[in-house]
Amino acid sequence: MRVLGIDVGGSGIKGAPVDTRTGRLLAPRVRLDTPAPATPAAVTRSVARVVRRFAWRGPIGCGVPAAVRAGVLLTAANVHHGWIGTDARALFSHATGRRVAIINDADAAGYAEMTFGAGRGRTGLVILVTLGTGIGTALFINGHLVPNTELGHLELDGHEAEARASAKVRKHSRLSWKKWALRVDAYLQALQRYFWPDLIIVGGGVSRKAEKFFPRLSVAENVEVVPAQLQNDAGIVGAALAYEHAAQRGRQRLALGPPAGVRPRPAGGA
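Above: the chain sequence. Below: its structure as tokens.
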């Protein structure tokens, strides 16, 4: 199946057509800056621009930085609060004229890594951690996703973990790789103590520079920790897989947006 995968992040909106049989991008990805503020209307316009760039006429899978239930966003940690309670699948479907599946962005990256990357063929408990604008997580038990875990909001040193150990914090606070690695290690240690995973996969764009901080992760003495293999493409590939999974389950009414011509209810935010 060929699906346009779109990854809505706190700083960028990226997309590319994906061959879901191989995980290969079928064209160079397009990246737009995430609008500021990232309101439902502004993000929807950007998603529609990505679709037009490819003149795309097929299905779309989209990862968003929020907990999601049946296409509706339940949280909005790194986008405008107007997204809470908004039906993203309906908005995107109406704006693009295509059917759309919506999934949490870290869950999308997890699908990609479990299917084509570092988690392929792994059983037991696997946790993917994405270090970016915030911290996203995806939890898999014997290959099955437990959606919307949002473990980046666990407390770490009296703060939300993503306010201490995200890649954005490293840049904005001008932390050395050593100092930042200590924070990441403390966070991964907490995950290890709470969940006792068999494998932790560390993803996000920073996974390209794993050699700068992986040697300082003492948590690796207790649990296997590996860098993600699909790096920044994971969200795009996983979003495309999310559409395929929804279609295979025969749950179009729940997981896929309405056909063109069906208007969503008004979105929160301008």
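Residues 252-270 have pLDDT under 50 and may be disordered.
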